[in-house]
Amino acid sequence: MKEKIDKVWVGMVAGVLGSALGFVLFGVGFAMFNHMSFGAFITDIFMKVEDFQSRIVSFSMLIDVILFFVFIRKNYQRFCKGLMAVLVLSVAVVAWLY
Question: What is the pLDDT of residues 40-57, one digit of tens each?
């Protein structure tokens, strides 16, 4: 099983999916807390309020960080290299949005 998962491209795909899941979870939680729809969160908060964009993207990366620590403890180095590549690119996006 480790041979199938411990690949750089699998880590990159997991990183992108983890980031997307983090964004959706944050957006749904924010929308529920503020009594708005998820679509309104995207259009009114994420797209229009530039000060929040970098913070939301940063918060979305937390799932990738958790995945990294779980898989590095299980000795999945190649998988973690893919995750790290996505995290480094995400830092560049956060810096650009900031």
Answer: 999 999 999 888 888 899
